[in-house]
Fold this sequence. Notes:
38% of the residues lie in helices and 18% in strands. It is of the alpha/beta class. It has one domain. The chain has a three-stranded parallel β-sheet, covered by helices on one side. Strand 1 (7-10), helix 1 and strand 2 (28-32) form a beta-alpha-beta unit. The chain is elongated. The protein starts with 6 loop residues before the first strand and ends with a strand. Mean pLDDT is 78; it is low at 113-118.
Amino acid sequence: MTIRISLGHIDTYDARVATFAHQLGLSGVQLHTPDLLPGVDGFWSLPELRALRERCDADGLAIDGLENAPLAHFWKIQRGLPGRDGRGGQHRRGHRSARACDLVRPLPGRPGDGAAIQ
């Protein structure tokens, strides 16, 4: 089994983050509700995810992890606020977008949208 170490819990991905990851000798990052993915429609769209992936690829870094949902919507889910219910469909749309730009792969034995970061 191989273990990878990534620069993690990043909200704002920029050139400073990429430089720091390279200075540490890391090959990837783990993003936490990244601000480069606004998710205006309540899910991370294919163009948003593809642009983030291309940005990280251009910096020579893999996206080893991507957490949560678009921040404006995650807040509702996290705190049980109105508008929280029904988020599952939008979350699945985000997973499908992530799969379409090769960020995730299906987990063995998991039906539906169960996925892990590549």
